[in-house]
């Protein structure tokens, strides 16, 4: 089972779940930036191993971009010398293996002519999504973990060259109460959200629960089939 992580070209990660483990050592060493959506384990778990594995192979720190609340969780609960060393001061403060870059909602960061802009998300902890605009001007939106989110869609609908939308659906319909409590989506809720979309991107579904993938995708087809959503595949490539 792989958890959320997306590689942009060769040097940027959006989230750092277990999918990072599919990369080779040489590929890991090329990652300069990680953009996090939120602090839950399935989205951050590979950062400690990544920086520990390749920190000494690099000439500059790995930059972790996230909301201040997310960075606080990393400082207090992961890189605290009890769970893992604090790589923001290793090997020394002047030459750390890792650094933090706080983000606010509405911020954007340009990395080698690719623009990463924060988007609102509605989750159980402070969270954001991202839009990624490539050199050719095409844009991908990743909602991150979210439930019903009216604040998102006016922003998405203003993106002229929106090519792809990656949106979560974590639960099947019979678990709607759990989806609402944990601030995720189920297929009925997904259909409600997609009805707010005024663009025509290709739509891909992520964050499906193991053991319920077939059922959830069947329900997505029944409830939101008019939007032609497809399941996001491991290793899938998008051109921007």
Outline the structure in words.
By secondary structure, the chain is α/β, with parallel strands linked by helices. It folds into two domains: 1-103, Metallo-beta-lactamase, Chain A, CATH 3.60.15.10; 104-240, Metallo-beta-lactamase, Chain A. It is 25% helix and 22% strand. The protein contains eight helices and twelve strands. A seven-stranded mixed beta sheet has the order 6-7-8-9-10-11-12. It starts with 5 loop residues before the first strand and ends in a 9-residue tail after the last strand. The mean pLDDT is 96.
Instruction: Give Rg in angstroms.
Output: 18 Å
| Distance, first to last CA | 27 Å
Number of domains: 2
Residues in β-strands, percent: 15-25%
Strand ordering within the main sheet: 6-7-8-9-10-11-12
Query: Quaternary arrangement of the chains shown?
Result: single chain
Q: Which residues form runs of ≥5 with pLDDT under 50?
A: none
Mean pLDDT across all amino acids:
96
Question: Main β-sheet, in a few words?
Answer: 7 strands, mixed
The helix count comes to 8
Return the CATH topology of the largest domain.
Metallo-beta-lactamase, Chain A
Q: CATH architecture of the largest domain, please?
A: 4-Layer Sandwich
From the spread of the alpha carbons, the general shape counts as globular
Question: Which structural class do the helices and strands define?
Answer: alpha/beta
List the secondary-structure elements in sequence, H or E.
EEHEHHEHEEEEEHEHHEHE
Query: What is the strand tally?
Result: 12
Q: Looking at this structure, what is the CATH superfamily of the largest domain? A: Ribonuclease Z/Hydroxyacylglutathione hydrolase-like
Residue share in helix: 10-25%
CATH class descriptor of the largest domain: Alpha Beta
């Amino acid at each position: 089972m792989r958890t959320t992580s997306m590689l942009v070209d060769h040097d940027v990660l959006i989230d750092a779940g277990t999918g990072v483990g599919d990369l080779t050592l040489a590929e890991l060493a090329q990652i300069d930036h990680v953009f996090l959506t939120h602090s839950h384990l399935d989205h951050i778990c590979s950062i400690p191993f990544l920086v520990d594995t390749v920190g000494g192979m690099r000439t500059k720190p790995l930059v972790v971009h996230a909301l201040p609340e997310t960075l606080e969780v990393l400082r207090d609960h992961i890189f605290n010398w009890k769970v893992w060393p604090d790589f923001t001061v290793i090997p020394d403060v002047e030459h750390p293996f890792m650094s933090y870059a706080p983000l606010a909602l509405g911020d954007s960061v340009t990395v080698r002519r690719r623009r990463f802009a924060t988007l609102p998300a509605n989750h159980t902890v402070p969270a954001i999504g991202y839009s990624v605009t490539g050199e050719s001007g095409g844009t991908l939106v990743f909602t991150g973990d979210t439930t019903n989110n009216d604040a998102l869609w006016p922003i998405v609908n203003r993106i002229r060259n929106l090519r792809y939308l990656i949106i979560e659906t974590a639960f099947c319909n019979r678990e709607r109460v759990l989806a609402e409590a944990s601030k995720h989506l189920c297929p009925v809720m997904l259909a409600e959200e997609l009805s707010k979309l005024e663009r025509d991107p290709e739509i891909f579904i992520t964050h499906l629960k193991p053991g319920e993938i077939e059922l959830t995708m069947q329900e997505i087809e029944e409830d939101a089939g008019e939007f032609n959503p497809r399941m996001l595949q491991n290793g899938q490539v998008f051109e921007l």
